Amino acid sequence: MSKYNSLWEYVQENGSASFKLTFDEIKDIAGIPLDHSFLNYKKELTEYGYQVGKISMKEQTVIFNKMD
Fold this sequence. Notes:
With about 70 residues, this protein is an alpha+beta fold.
């Protein structure tokens, strides 16, 4: 079980083709702040039918895209 499982499930349940979450929203959903290890964990999201798009450090956002 990944520390980001609750986030992955949230993304999957969202169902949108593409959407953006702020770092603060991710912290609220996952129960942990986003850290550098997220880059290692993001590949798990493909099991849920999504992939991580752009991560903006300036805007403090992450874009999630549904896979075809």
